[in-house]
Design a protein that fits this description.
By secondary structure, the protein is mainly α.
Length: 71
């Protein structure tokens, strides 16, 4: 995988961790209601997971790298 793609994905995951931490801290201090936000976060993560699974399937099955040196 390209180094640039790995960096972008790692920064995106770091941003998600920071977002979840901030929401959790706001919920602990009763600034926001966690029940609705956590439900929406998990549903959103499930949608992203399903989309990533479909994209991974498309890349592994339909877009094969036809490099003869790898076979």
């Amino acid at each position: 995988m390209n180094k640039t793609v790995k960096k972008v994905i790692s920064y995106f995951l770091i941003a998600l961790v920071l977002l979840f931490t901030a929401v959790a801290l706001l919920g602990i201090w009763d600034i926001i209601s966690l029940e609705d936000i956590i439900k929406k976060m998990f549903v959103s993560l499930m949608v992203v997971f399903a989309a990533a699974a479909v994209i991974l399937f498309i890349f592994t099955v339909l877009v094969k790298d036809e490099d003869p040196s790898q076979q």
